[in-house]
Amino acid sequence: MKRCTTFICVCLASYLAVWAHFPWETEAPKRELRAVWVTTLSGLDWPRTKATSPTSIERQKQELCLLLDQLSACHINTVLLQTRVRGSVIFPSSIEPWDQCLTGSYDKSPGYDPLAFAIEETHRRGMELHAWVVTIPAFKVEVARRMGKRSLLSTHPELLKKHEGQYYLDPGLPGTADYLSAFIADFIDKYDIDGIHFDYIRYPENASAFPDAATYRKYGRGKPKATWRRDNITAIVRRLYKEVKQRKPWVVMSSSPVGKYRDTRRYSSHGWNCYDAVHQDAQGWLREGIQDALFPMMYFTGDHFYPFAIDWQEGSHGRYVAPGLGIYFLHPQEKNWNLSVITSELHYLRRYELAGQAFFRSKFLTDNTKGLYDYLQQMFYPYPALPPAYPWLDGEAPGKPEGLSLTTDDNGQSTLSWDEPSDNITPKGAIRYNVYASTEYPVDTRKAENLTAMLLSTRSYSFSTIAKLLYGVYFAVTAVDRSGNESEAAQLDWDTCLSPKTALQRTPLTPLGTVVHP
To answer: Of 145, 213, 379, 455, which has the maximum CB count within 10 A?
Structure first.
């Protein structure tokens, strides 16, 4: 009996220790980065259909709409869309050719502008779109000639180095920063993007073999080679950050560094980290203020994950870190992780107040791999959440909306309407709106469960009047600028509202015309 009691005590102690380490009851916050990478390389996430006819163009568009509906339904708020693939793009560029994912051929127009379409549809669903730019890698050697006369190999062969079967831009050449700057300028003014997300802004794997000896001899200036390489990458990050902010200060600049910054005092990175292996001083970028957010690729488990997540948070210098989670490892053909690997990491990140999380990649989320989609929708993301505000970009909130009113037509459809703040200090079109609903007056806009629609570009919101009859809803509307600053709430006190006699579970109202899947 004594042995049994001892065994039970040991098990209980172990259980409590695990519970303390991974508390499952973490409250869903009103603001949180909830991002997903949407991969266009080879159409891995989108598109599946090639745009070769009017019918297939529409099918390609509908594939994206369905994907965005699914992401919106589980309260993702940030889409990282692969916009520059490998020296090719998904928008009409004067610098680089069309990627083959759209039509099956390089440098062939799909007959529409996929980036403009994606931005419009993402914003329509109250999400942000960040243009994911694969930065230093170009293309594999065997496909270089197929890319046509506008490929980097034809236009700027002097910038390329061949390394392990692939071409890369040489970060040590001054012309590389010039080229990337021109590339960003080619699309930032034309598109209403919310962010630019740099992937692979680093030296490649097996960096010791990267053939930049001649570049180092010419530009190294006596620095140790590792230091020189880190300085090269930082100089590119610094230049792109400053140039983008001069054009559009509100555009969020982020990157996805390798998942471990450096060895910590207690845990080794086992030779794979940002600082030493691929020459990314990513925490230095945060310290200098030349990145707004990082999405480190933390596709690890156990002691390879948790201490390094804390290290990122401690080195964030007031900027945002939202670790990337390798949800593709849930798949049986990958590492066949248990769902608990990801759910434990999610709760850990929220408990220790990192800015959020990102998922690589979207297909493994929308396919509900190991039940992850259901878990997010029902448990971890029960309510919408706004992306965080960026007060270092703009710390002044707009004025609150004016003239808030509600009308109901004969078909039982109600519409909230409002006017732009009269003291609007932001450029025209830069204001978006959030709608809140509650059974209590005034509506508490601090609560995530009251957030009903967000980042609306229009000054109206329609819904079925039956929601009022069921919930006795009061409404409030706030204005939010492009840096995420939110105004005070304009409150609509509807005295004739029918309050429920019994407590009902609160679910967000669904706007008319919105399709909700998984």
So the answer is: 455
Name the phi and psi angles at 445, rounded to 5.
-80, 5
Structure tokens at 456: 């609306």
Backbone torsions φ then ψ of 324, nearest 5 degrees: -85, 135
Place of tokens 């794997």: 205
* pLDDT tens string 299-348: 999 999 999 999 999 999 999 999 999 999 999 999 999 999 999 999 99
Two tokens, residue 5 = 């009691």
Q: Residue 469's pLDDT is what? A: 63
Q: Measure the CA–CA gap between 78 and 365, rounded to whole angstroms.
A: 14
Ranges of beta strands (E only) in 60-174 are 78-84, 128-134, 137-140, 160-163, 166-169
476: Cβ contacts below 8 Å, ≥ 6 apart: 435, 436, 437, 438, 442, 443, 445, 450, 489, 490, 491, 492
Q: Where are the beta strands (DSSP E) in 360-512?
A: 402-408, 413-419, 432-438, 451-456, 460-464, 474-480, 490-492
Instruction: At 477, give phi and psi (nearest 5°).
Output: -135, 135
375 phi/psi in degrees, rounded to 5: -65, -45
Tokens of 221: 């200036």
CA angle at 111 for the pair 110 and 112, rounded to the nearest 5°: 95
**Whole-angstrom distance, CA of residue 206 vs CA of residue 498:** 67
Residue 472: pLDDT band by 50, 70, 90 thresholds? Answer: low
Name the nearest CA neighbour of 151 among 98, 204, 111, 101: 98
Pairing state between β 460-464 and 324-325? unpaired
Q: What is the pLDDT of residue 370?
A: 98
Helix, strand, or coil here: 64? helix
Give, for 294, the enclosing helix (H) or strand (E): strand 293-294
d(CA 303, CA 344): 13
- DSSP track, 158-212: GGEEEETTEEEE-TTSHHHHHHHHHHHHHHHTTS--SEEEEES-SPPSSGGG-S-
The long-range contacts involving 217-220, CB below 8 angstroms and separated by at least 24 positions, are 219/172, 219/173, 219/174
- Roughly what angle, to the nearest 10 degrees, separates helices 114-124 and 54-73? 30
